[in-house]
Amino acid sequence: MGVFPITYRQDAGDVTVGGVRLCDLAAAYGTPLYVLDAATIRDMCGAYVTPLQSAYPNHMVVYAGKAGMSIRLLSFLKSCGLGVDVVSGAECLTALRAGIDPDKIVFHGNNKSLEELQLAVNAGVNIVVDHEQEMAMLSDIATALGRRVLVMLRLKPEIEAHTHDYIKTGQIDSKFGLDKDSVMALAAAYNAHAFIHILGLHSHIGSQIFDTEPYYDLVDRMVAHTQSLSQVLGRDVEVLNLGGGMGIQYTEQDDPPVVSALVAGMAEKLKSACQKAGIPLPKLVLEPGRSIVGVAGLTMYRVGAIKDIPGIKTYAFIDGGMADNIRPMLYQSQYTFGVAQRADATEHKTYAVAGRYCESGDVLSHTVSLPTLQVGDLIVVYGTGAYNYAMASNYNRVPRPAVVMVENGKSTLLVRRETMEDMLHFDVEA
Length: 430
Ligand SMILES: Cc1ncc(COP(=O)(O)O)c(C=O)c1O
Fold this sequence. Notes:
Layout: E1 9-11, E2 14-17, E3 20-21, H1 22-29, E4 33-37, H2 38-55, E5 59-64, H3 71-79, E6 83-86, H4 89-97, E7 105-107, H5 114-123, E8 126-129, H6 132-145, E9 149-154, H7 180-190, E10 196-202, H8 213-233, E11 239-241, H9 259-277, E12 283-286, H10 290-293, E13 297-309, E14 313-318, H11 327-331, E15 336-339, E16 348-354, E17 363-371, E18 378-382, E19 402-407, E20 410-415, H12 420-423
Parallel strand pairs: 4-19, 5-6, 5-12, 6-7, 7-8, 8-9, 9-10, 10-11, 11-12, 14-16
Antiparallel strand pairs: 1-2, 2-3, 4-13, 13-14, 13-18, 15-18, 16-17, 19-20
Helix pairs in contact: 2-9, 5-6, 7-8, 8-9
Bound molecules: pyridoxal-5'-phosphate.
């Protein structure tokens, strides 16, 4: 896929994405601004759905909404054939409001509240059960409401995914899911429940994964677990959810897998593993987040000041920073930087791109080579479509940026910019 959205163009130094000049977007919507390229998102949805249509027709691809969601984005993803995975009541409401079929919503989380589970059961969405207490709570809710609940049981596959410790999830000490024996015991305990129907297993090994081997190992391991579950239930298992986590290219150095080839490979491996195990093919569910929207996104900032510390470094101060992109501070994430205009300039200088927030660590990068900057220039950070808007905060009571989607020379507002007044909205005045 590369580092840039697929519609990225540069014309005499002016950058366009989705056929719209970035400087025109900044003028129309202000900065900082999150921009999503519709064509790139559609392309990435196709990278999952197209190979599966031929190789594994019984599938469902759900977008991991935690990567970033809004009603309009989810309805766009619905038009690309995706369902949605949610991890909170409000995410679930957003998916329902976007018109996602409850059958195509998967509700996750290691500590869902009573209110959230009631919402999920009432709406009829699929629930990934994390542990025994949650199953007991679900049983009470389903029985009280007299509603059948479709569940997957989250199993720790114990596969090493080579990624940052904070985004590994499949290992035995992970807070998510249960070990194999506990999952089987839970399945046995609820097999005959009048309102709980166990669809199958769920697993997820981590995020921003570049190796393909862990995914193939995951297929083998989860097929073996599915076979065991089938014995416990005394019937065929309908679903196997293998999670998401496929990595993307943030910088030239990153080398993620080609999604369509990985997905086709997983489908083939699943078919042969099921055949060997003598079990029917379950519905394959995948939950990509980052790889659907990451590269489609960029964030644009206006340079407010340039501070030179002679012999040490030159800061370019931008009008956003850690509150709209926490990832450099959280995971030491690297990004590709550019400018929206004069992108063809030959004279470059090294800058530390520092945010506006009251933290010394609020620096998006300490060393970026950019065309020599002037106050008022637009700095662009690429690859910010996933886990940026989603993790944004109002630190320092700074309003969060707007989110726009661009396609065929047009822009559509997905989320409006917050205002200073919005920052006071929840305060109770004396
Ligand atoms: C259960 C589950 N599924 C899917 C995802 C999506 O991962 P990614 O955005 O890396 O594809 C996550 C993210 O951590 C997750 O926890």
